[in-house]
Amino acid sequence: ENFNGIKDILPILQKNIPRALGINDSILDGIESQIRSLPMDIMAFRTLLYRASEGELPIELSKPQLESLEKSLRENSSKVITGMTLLLSGVFVLLYDRSFDNIALILFGVGILRLVFR
Questions:
Q1: What percent of the chain is predicted at pLDDT more than 90?
Q2: Cβ(107)–Cβ(90) below 8 Å
Q3: Are the C-beta atoms of 73 and 63 separated by less than 8 Å?
Q4: Which residues contact 103 (CB under 8 A, 6 or more apart)?
Q5: What is the pLDDT of residues 36-68, one digit of tens each?
């Protein structure tokens, strides 16, 4: 009836949390572990530099990053396509008939504005 779970489990947690987090018992164990992994780290760094110099540096993206990139690309590309279409329409109207120079100027101007103010 006087059970206090926190009081009873706290000593067990204090003893086992460092082991659960992968923290070594002493500083010397940590230093020894780092020294043992040093050759592998140097080899990995060397491989990284070689791949970077060869232009073969792989990049991994998560699914949310890819979705965000795709959304941004879709939004910006549609604005650029619209601006270029308006620019080309203005040039085409001007080439078709010089009497429509005001319409061509408006189309060209709107196309420029669309490209500048995306």
A1: 26
A2: yes
A3: no
A4: 90, 93
A5: 888 999 999 999 888 888 888 778 889 999 999
Give every CB contact of residue 79 below 8 A, 6+ residues apart in sequence.
114, 115, 118
Question: Can you tell me whether residue 99 is helix, strand or coil?
Answer: helix
- Rounded to whole angstroms, what are the CA distances from 54 to 10, 50, 51? 54, 6, 5
Residues 91 and 59: their CA atoms lie apart, in Å, by: 42
Detail the DSSP E strand segments found in 1-118: none
| Other beta carbons less than 10 A from residue 100's beta carbon | 14
* 35 or 5, higher pLDDT: 35
Residue 89: closest CA among 75, 110, 117, 74: 110
3-state secondary structure of 21: helix
Residue 108, both tokens: 């060209």
Is residue 33 a contact partner of residue 24, using CB atoms and an 8 Å limit?
yes
Residue 56 is encoded by which pair of tokens?
């073969």
